[in-house]
């Protein structure tokens, strides 16, 4: 909690396990497990900024 992550939002609702999701959190699968993608400079980004 308390960290910024990279996600795609506004997807059409889709059932995932026992809940409905409209977002996709982006991560990379490494030999150490899944690493969530985060902004390079969290202080300069805000929720809703576009992914480039």
Question: What can you tell me about this protein's structure?
Answer:
With 52 residues, the protein is an all-beta fold. Helices cover 0% and strands 48% of the residues. It is built from no helices and four strands. The strands form two sheets. It has a two-stranded antiparallel ribbon with strand order 1-2. The mean pLDDT is 91.
Task: Tag the structure with descriptive keywords.
52 residues, two-stranded antiparallel ribbon, mainly beta
Q: How would the blueprint of this fold be written?
A:
Elements: E1 7-16, E2 19-25, E3 27-30, E4 33-36
Antiparallel strand pairs: 1-2, 3-4
Strand order of the largest sheet: 1-2
Question: Which series of helices and strands comes N to C?
Answer: EEEE
Shape: globular
Mean pLDDT: 91
Number of helical regions: 0
Cα separation of the termini: 24 Å
Radius of gyration: 13 Å
Major sheet: size, sense and barrel closure? 2 strands, antiparallel
Uncertain ranges = none
Task: Estimate the strand proportion.
Answer: over 45%
Q: Which structural class matches the secondary elements?
A: mainly beta
Helix fraction bin: under 10%
Number of strands: 4
Brief write-up:
It is built from no helices and four strands. The chain has strands at residues 7-16, 19-25, 27-30, 33-36.
């Amino acid at each position: 909690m308390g960290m910024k992550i990279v996600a795609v939002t506004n997807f059409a609702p889709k059932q995932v396990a026992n809940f409905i999701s409209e977002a996709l959190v982006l991560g990379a699968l490494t030999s150490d497990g899944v690493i969530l993608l985060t902004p390079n400079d969290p202080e300069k980004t805000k929720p809703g900024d576009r992914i480039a």
